[in-house]
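Technical note accompanying the year-one report. For the benefit of new consortium partners, we illustrate the data format agreed upon in the data management plan: each record pairs a sequence with a structure-token string. No post-processing was applied to the example shown here.
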Amino acid sequence: MKKIFFKAAALCCALSLSACASKKAVSVTPPDGSLDKCELRFSWWGGDDRHEATLKAIDLWSKKHPDITVTPEYGGWDGWTEKVTAQMNSGTEPDIMQINYDWLISMSPDCKGFYDLDSLGGTLDLSGFDEETLSFGRVDGKLNAVTVSLSGRGLFYNSQAYNAIGAAYPQTWSDLIALGKSFSSEDAYPMDLDIQSGGTAWYLAVVYIQQKTGRQFITLDGELGFTEEDIREALDFYKLLEDNHVIRTVKTRTDEDGNAALYQSPEFIGGNVAGVLEWGSAVGKYEAVLPKGVLESGPLLADESGNNSGWMIKPSLLYAVSGHTKHPDEAAAFVDFLLNDEECAEILGTTRGIPASRKARNALEQSGSLTGLSKECEDMLTEADTITISPYMELTRMKSFYNAAIESVSYGTADTKTAAEQMYRSVKEYLEKIKK
């Protein structure tokens, strides 16, 4: 992530998303004080690996704090943003939430949706975090959320499927395109892009253009950095992948998978789809449905000169406390447990990526548990000249623009020029609207 990451994080720290109203003073439980008996709700999304580990962590919490009951609420990513948005709008959200990066903009624009965690220092220890990492959760100086891990998308491949045809993992974009022909004779694909996860197909096209031009798609302060021609070229690249049998068309994916996420698809589980683009913090759900050791990490794609810039990182997820919770100290204590408790760290492992907390990370290092695909992905991104994703790029409405353009090009209802014109206009207008 190199110097560009720290520079971007500092910019994010300074980013002013809105004017925050002052909050009334809160009573913070002293470090040696007792916590009140209460019930807390905790929500998160993820795959089965994350669910199972988190439920075990809650069991450990119950043994250590029997007077504080934590009720879990969890599910898959599809539709999760809409569910939590409805809860936030009705004031029925859980006390503690795993949140996405862009939710700081969409769910707490006035800084009241989530608690200012700096005010809960008596029960939440942040000494194991550097300020660059904490800056991702700050809005106008208020710590609305704590970064759990930093992550980026990487490429992961079914080693059995590749070995079966004697193919090597691609190093360059040209390698990737050439692989389509090798796999087509097996009626298989070297990789695919999950249409259920929101913006995955567009993400890869953005990396390709960022690497080629040096321009960022959307800047940290919400400015559109791509030209209309850049967007058209990104859509041309996506269509090139389809036309060369590198990925399935949208229609083929829909016909074969229905509404199932890619990791649940028989095509992926059976090896006909032999690669995925996924967050390092979430790749465990793909790994879990294949035989042990079959899924392997591949290199970040580069141009012919070996330049692999343009790949992106962000907080994979954050923990936030509801601004309406009746038990802020107890909620903060549970967040502290999730972030810093050594036994909890052992249970959670890397199901949410490589921990940003030094205490949790050290616990995993000492036990030899800091290994696997998440760590390999982090190591590759650390060595690359990465870009910090703008939270504006992650907004649900923005993803609808990307997916609409991808689908229109894939189905042939619009050429790339027309789709690019529409997408450029929609993105630009929405950015101007949301920043008012």
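Partners are asked to follow this layout when depositing records. The first strand starts at residue 38 and ends at 45.
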